[in-house]
Amino acid sequence: MLTSNPLRISASAQQTATVIFLHGLGQTNVGWHNRIRWMATQLPNIEWVLPQAPTRPVSLNGGQHRSSWFNIQSLPPSCNEWDEAAMASSISGVEAWIQAEVHRGTDPHRIVLMGFSQGAALSLLVALTTLHELGGVISLAGWIPHRGREQIVHTEPYLPIFCGHGRSDCEIPTYYSEEAMAFLRDVLRLPTGFLTFKRYEGLPHAVNSAEMYDVVIWLQSVLHLLPIANEM
What we know:
By secondary structure, this protein is α/β, with parallel strands linked by helices.
């Protein structure tokens, strides 16, 4: 069962947007706090919501219990990877967090999903299937699970999407993001002007300051936020 009380980093100025961030396999929302806190200082009008994945057996780790949005058999993930029950539960949970933000007064167009690795895969699936017209989605070292593509009904063809990926990533190779971008462009027919793909030299399965800076700039653009000149 998904946690109902995510970690929050409040906007330091008047809130005009919300980013929901989903961590990766075996990680915690607290472990991302410092990086997200830095981004919050650059984007004072955004409130950040950091849910925590439940702990469940993970086949990749021999059934060891780890924080996970869904089970995974191998890395890199195969085309047949699909944990239907956990994925349905996680998608429902993210939808509930989106709805909670809407109830708090945030326009769906001002809500962005963001995730790393497994959290990025989940963010992309939700953004491409939700009935809410979101402001965008950010995938860091992510992919679009092939089995999940059967469920995609894209109701907002102008959804801005940012994909960032390290060229030295061996767990989720850069090809996974490249293939996802091709799917978005060629199958879903998303306009290329709404697709941003950046590769980072020497970066393994992680993020770095250059990537976080690019995310900040992208969020400022899609949410029409003013930069903080003295800190950027």
